[in-house]
Fold each of these.
Amino acid sequence: MPRTPTRLLTAAALTAAALLTATACTAGTPQAKEKPPAAPKKPSATGSAPAPRVLTQAQAQAALVTATDLGEPWAPTQGAATWRDGLLKATTESPECRRLLDALYADDLFGGNTGTRAVTGLDDPLDQTQLRYQVLALNTSDVDRTLAWLKSLPRGCGRFTAVTAHGAVQGVTVREADLPRVGDAQQGLRITLSSETADGEPTVLTMDVAAVRVGDDTIAVSLGGLGDVSPDATRAAVETGVRRLSEVRKSGRAQI
């Protein structure tokens, strides 16, 4: 049998020793623990609130104030008052003041904007006044622009002259009216139109108007007459109306 050369034996011995040393080192070194897989990240919320539900016609109708809400002597209206055509149908030179007269005559502060709208009319036969109450669903920015316009009128149209469709000259005054602090934004005005009859008798038509934004909805009130026009009636209609509208909205959400 041939003899193994000494050089080959020595190399084999060194290789075996190296393998033993490497194995010993590996056995003495603690193995690093594997990290558990990272939990999947939750998708971030957009944070956007659900869009408000548009007021329905039935809800707007249910939110109207009634004669019972205001108490005696208020009753459902018997028709448009005669002073509406006789005194409110008028014009003037200033575009802003003419816009106010047109809004009073049309009983529409918001320029005919489309949307849900419910309207009721009530009469006070004792003071011979008439109240018109509306619940509307309009664009919020449009409502706020109208409120800002109303607020500007005591400065821009505090006193001016208007001429009726029958040629009678009227002196008109516009001042801010105090309203209950209800709703999210509001503005009220008291307007007086003074003139004389054909017999020289003085006549004074007093008009209270109010607009209140309640969230995404709006109420509008107008109260007018040739006699005593109590601002308390306007304030009562505003307070009752805002409360009624809030209740209708809350009830509607509960049914969703």
Amino acid sequence: MARTPTGAAVLQPEVTQAITDAVLNELAEQGYGRLSMEAVAKRAGVGKSALYRRWRSKHEMITAVVAEFSVTRAADVDTGSLRGDLRETMQALIDWLTHPLFSRILPDLVAEGVRNPETAESTRTSIGGPRREVGEAMLRRAIARGELPGDLDLEMALDVLAAPIYWRLVVRQAEAEPDYLDRLVGYALRALGAQGG
């Protein structure tokens, strides 16, 4: 029977959570460029070795933490109707983009992606890709139910659904009024050519 080697790294969930919280707080306060492994370790109350047991580099650590935070907040729901699914999906997107920490992290990640192609690619593949897969599954269900045309351009549709919220909340930094979500869902249904939308 195999024995765990002496001194083997055991990744304790409470330590991982403390590190995750520290990464998000450091990103929000310092930004990608100024974040250091030393500061994350100090804030989490761990040695730097605890970070390096989990990730090989600062970039890998940030990518993993932000992806976990972001992908788990994508609404993977099936309400039985496109209108219901859009409402849940768009509300989850609003909640993600207005999260007290993430609302300060995302603009910095986008800016870092302009300067650093590796960051842009990591963000696209680890956050954008999985979140778009959830959205695509929602649209495919609506096509199967006959709510959307079978020849729907899925890539364009996904852009159309996310772009207004991103533009309003992140770029313009405008409020989402109480009726904003319902108005946006109505516009989205018409833009997608939904039956009865």
Amino acid sequence: MAAPPLPGPLAHLAPLLGHYGYWAVGAVVLVEDFGVPAPGETILLAAGVYAGAGRLNVVGVALIAFTAAVVGDNIGYLIGRVGGRAFVHRWGRYIFLTPKRFAATEAFFGRHGGKIVTVARFIEGLRQANGIIAGTTGMHWRRFLAFNALGAALWVGLWTTLAYLVGSHITTVYDEVSRYQLYVLVAAAALIAAFAARHVVRLRREH
């Protein structure tokens, strides 16, 4: 089956995706998730469009992207855990993780804890630095792995499904979803915080 034309900013990925298929999806998502500047989200959308046209299998795309996202973030976690801040300050500029950007991201991460690992998947900049920051701040690996896997599943599921369903209209839908996703994520975080506070108050009353 002939490859469908990719719309707008996805078009430049057609040769890569057409030639390497699933390998391209896995490799690009993997390297983006430990800090290398790469179009991970873009190739996920493009792969979803290809899957909708029958060129790729949507389940295969989702599984490969999920695995690559989790592994990539864990590589970033290991880099941050072993190398620490000194490593990031020395080499981070080569992947656009400057000391100033790193400090701002680390502060944000430190304030919001584990839930940020999940939400960060949807935020450009945080998605790439997520694992490294978790490693440098000393977050427990199992806790990181759980929140990271949840974020990866939601991220892959959302964009793969949308691209698969809407096909060549994905760029329009993506722009609309991106416009409101931060508000939705903030609202979800506030709701989670409210439930957590209610739970703490209830425990204190019981004791």
